[in-house]
Amino acid sequence: MFFRYSEWDESRHGQNLPTFDRLLDLFQQLLFHTGGDADEALSWLTQLDNKYGLTDDEMGIGDFIEELKNRGLIERDEQTGVVQITAKGERGLRQRSLEEIFSHLRKSGRGNHKTPYAGSGDERLPETRPFNFGDDIHSLDVTGTLSNAFRRSGLGDFSLSEDDFQVFETDHHSSVATVLMIDLSHSMILYGEDRITPARKTAMALAELIMTQYPKDTLDIVAFGNEAWEVEVKDLPYLQVGPFHTNTRAGLERARTILRRRKNRNKQVFMITDGKPSAHFEAGRLYKNAYGLDRKIVNKVLDEAAICRREGITITTFMIAHDPYLQNFVRQLTDANQGRAYYASLDDLGGFIFEDYVRNRRKFMR
Fold this sequence. Notes:
The chain is of the alpha/beta class. It folds into three domains: 75 residues; 47 residues, no CATH class; 189 residues, Rossmann fold, CATH 3.40.50. 42% of the residues lie in helices and 17% in strands. A hairpin with a 2-residue loop joins strand 9 and strand 10. The chain is flat, with a radius of gyration of 26 Å.
């Protein structure tokens, strides 16, 4: 390991930003950690200001709160008096998550996902090829076609033949249905490690990416603990860990039900988890065993993974724990589904998921 020192650059550390922008940046970071609780985030921000002097004569905390209201980022519930973030504020968190993860991808050298495959699509490429019967006439390269004709026949006896026509290549376009499963079992906040915050942030960023860049794709969110339930995009900032066991089988069942409704040809499940399956429903009751890998529970999960494979659903597991005992279970799950598995750190979770998402879209295009 080595360190490289350089001259201090104020612009790289946000010191030259207006006071509001600096406070907003910190406020959004606090919202990630409070699960979207604006009141608590503002309380933390006030404490930090008292200790470190974040504000100045230009803007105090009270002025900052008023500006947040004026910009439509927060509002106060008239009945409860609780400060909440608005739909615009939620969108800002998703955009912030997306920018942060893409920034990390650029720094790490990942994220360059140009596909070597071309075909019928919406985005025109600079490359051309000879015209084939059935090609879209809107892709015609007029300049290249006329140049071919001039070179063949000259100006004196100008004519067009079939061999002169050429068209622009276009990117493949495909639609992918993705279900992102997020483990909300109690272990996601155990051992002094906050695992739910990066999971929330990744879900928000992936939702924003799909809605803005891949509108033909779909993203559904499934949270799972003792049971599994669907989560809407607007609910993502508020996901909280509960006193739950890990019912992975229920999560996969719910994901399959969702994907069965989707008309997309390509279907996949991304599962973020940090632990072993420790519960499932048996004869209408929740069977639980938090000690070791209970084969009764594990086998049901593997059966569900095999059903997903038969239905053409690929499961990609992002394991944010490094216990070899648990990794063995993930290997079994991956084998049963013929899917993929990553053993990601919390810092790299978003990068791994984004890279795999775009890679999968490229794979589906082949």
